């Protein structure tokens, strides 16, 4: 209240001095926090703290409470619990009565982190199938977090990355847990499967050492579920019944190798190599007595027209051999003809009804002859040989 102080001497009643005094009782604020103390590690709240205030004053039955965080503006408390935001913050609070008497502000610090740490497994993928017992787990969490895999501590780099090497047998599960400074955790279960069995692969066409007469060859076969197939390094479409077809273009005459690989989800590989012999077909149209012929529908002029001798058709040797792309050599001393195409060599002699095909004696239905300076050979033997 208000008072006047009077001072005088003890022997005399003479008034000396007096002065008025006002004694003011300030309001008082109490704070209540739920949970009552940090429930995480290192002084952190893992649960968002809720704050309520109550204020008392000897001259005011309902003083007003004000609060703010850090350097914010004061807010009048409306008797509703307030939530402390994430992070590290200082709460300021005080009361003011109806006469404007203000309590000295009080403070309370909060460290709040209710968010689990990030945790990403970079490799292998969950439910991945591996073809080696060694399993290397790579992942990333947030900075400052710790990681355990099956309760074993893992070194975490300053950027949050980690690597863990172990071995697996069959189907294996790993419990991977990241824990931040506040004690929040995030768990990831990684499952992997060991498979070291190569996938099934069969090639049904072409068969080994098949002789083909077209540059395009259709490869057919079958593999197993989830396997991928490549033919000569190019992907082939695998159907729902695990069969596949792929068209190969052969680039050279003679022996070619068609390489087929099947790869399963674990990376196991099965390889099949199919050798085929490519002998291109050449269509030649000749007419007895006609100096012009067709090679694959293209008109060419012959040195000498085909003739029939004793019921057998003979054609100019050089024309027919070059039409097939063969090399022809002539021995004038012994009148020998050498024809070479790929790995096959044919030897003929003028007037002799025999020939040598890769050193094997073959009987001719008509002996080679020379007509007007041109060597004529039986067409059936040359084309078949």
Describe the protein in words:
The protein has helices spanning 317-323, 379-384; strands spanning 2-8, 15-22, 28-34, 50-56, 64-69, 75-76, 82-83, 87-96, 106-112, 119-123, 128-130, 134-141, 146-149, 152-154, 161-167, 171-179, 185-194, 202-205, 210-212, 216-222, 228-231, 234-238, 243-249, 254-263, 269-278, 284-285, 292-295, 298-301, 307-309, 312-316, 327-331, 336-341, 344-349, 354-357, 360-363, 369-371, 374-378. The chain is mainly beta. The protein has an 8-stranded mixed sheet, with no helix packed on it. A 5-stranded mixed sheet has the order 11-17-16-13-14, with no helix packed on it. Strand 29 and strand 30 (312-316) form a beta hairpin. It is rod-shaped and about 180 Å long.
Give a topology summary.
Elements: E1 2-8, E2 15-22, E3 28-34, E4 50-56, E5 64-69, E6 75-76, E7 82-83, E8 87-96, E9 106-112, E10 119-123, E11 128-130, E12 134-141, E13 146-149, E14 152-154, E15 161-167, E16 171-179, E17 185-194, E18 202-205, E19 210-212, E20 216-222, E21 228-231, E22 234-238, E23 243-249, E24 254-263, E25 269-278, E26 284-285, E27 292-295, E28 298-301, E29 307-309, E30 312-316, H1 317-323, E31 327-331, E32 336-341, E33 344-349, E34 354-357, E35 360-363, E36 369-371, E37 374-378, H2 379-384
Parallel strand pairs: 11-17, 19-25
Antiparallel strand pairs: 1-2, 3-4, 4-7, 5-6, 5-8, 8-9, 10-12, 12-15, 13-14, 13-16, 16-17, 18-20, 20-23, 21-22, 21-24, 22-23, 24-25, 26-27, 27-28, 29-30, 30-37, 31-32, 32-33, 33-34, 34-35, 36-37
């Amino acid at each position: 209240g208000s008072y006047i102080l009077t001072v005088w001497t003890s022997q005399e009643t003479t008034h000396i001095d007096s002065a008025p005094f006002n004694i003011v009782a300030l309001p008082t604020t109490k704070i209540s926090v739920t949970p009552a103390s940090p429930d995480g590690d290192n002084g952190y709240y893992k649960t968002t703290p809720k704050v309520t205030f109550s204020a008392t004053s000897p001259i005011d039955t309902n003083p007003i409470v004000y609060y703010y965080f850090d350097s914010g503006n004061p807010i009048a408390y409306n008797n509703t619990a307030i939530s402390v935001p994430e992070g590290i913050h200082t709460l300021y609070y005080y009361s003011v009565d109806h006469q404007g008497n203000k309590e000295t502000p009080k403070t309370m610090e909060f460290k709040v982190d209710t968010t689990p740490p990030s945790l990403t497994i970079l490799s292998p993928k969950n439910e991945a199938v591996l073809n080696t017992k060694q399993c290397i787990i790579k992942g990333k969490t947030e900075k400052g977090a710790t990681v355990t895999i099956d309760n074993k501590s893992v070194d975490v780099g300053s950027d949050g990355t980690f690597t863990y090497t172990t071995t697996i047998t069959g189907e294996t599960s790993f419990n991977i847990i990241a824990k931040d400074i506040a004690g929040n955790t995030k768990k990831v279960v990684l499952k992997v499967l060991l498979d070291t069995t190569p996938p099934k692969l069969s090639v049904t066409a072409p068969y080994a050492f098949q002789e083909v007469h077209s540059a395009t060859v259709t490869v057919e076969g079958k593999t197993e579920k989830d396997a991928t197939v490549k033919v000569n390094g190019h992907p082939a479409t695998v159907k729902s019944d695990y069969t596949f077809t792929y068209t190969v273009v052969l680039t050279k005459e003679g022996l070619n190798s068609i390489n087929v690989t099947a790869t399963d989800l674990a990376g196991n590989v099965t390889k099949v190599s199919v050798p085929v012999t490519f002998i291109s077909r050449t269509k030649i149209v000749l007419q007895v007595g006609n100096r012009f012929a067709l090679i694959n529908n293209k008109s060419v002029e012959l040195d000498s027209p085909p003739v029939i001798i004793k019921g057998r058709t003979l054609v100019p040797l050089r024309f027919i051999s070059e039409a097939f792309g063969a090399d022809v050599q002539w021995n004038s001393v012994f009148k020998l003809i050498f024809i070479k195409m790929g790995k096959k060599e044919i030897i003929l002699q003028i007037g002799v009804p025999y020939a040598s095909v890769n050193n094997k004696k073959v009987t001719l239905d008509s002996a080679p002859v020379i007509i007007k300076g041109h060597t004529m050979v039986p067409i059936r033997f040359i084309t078949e040989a």
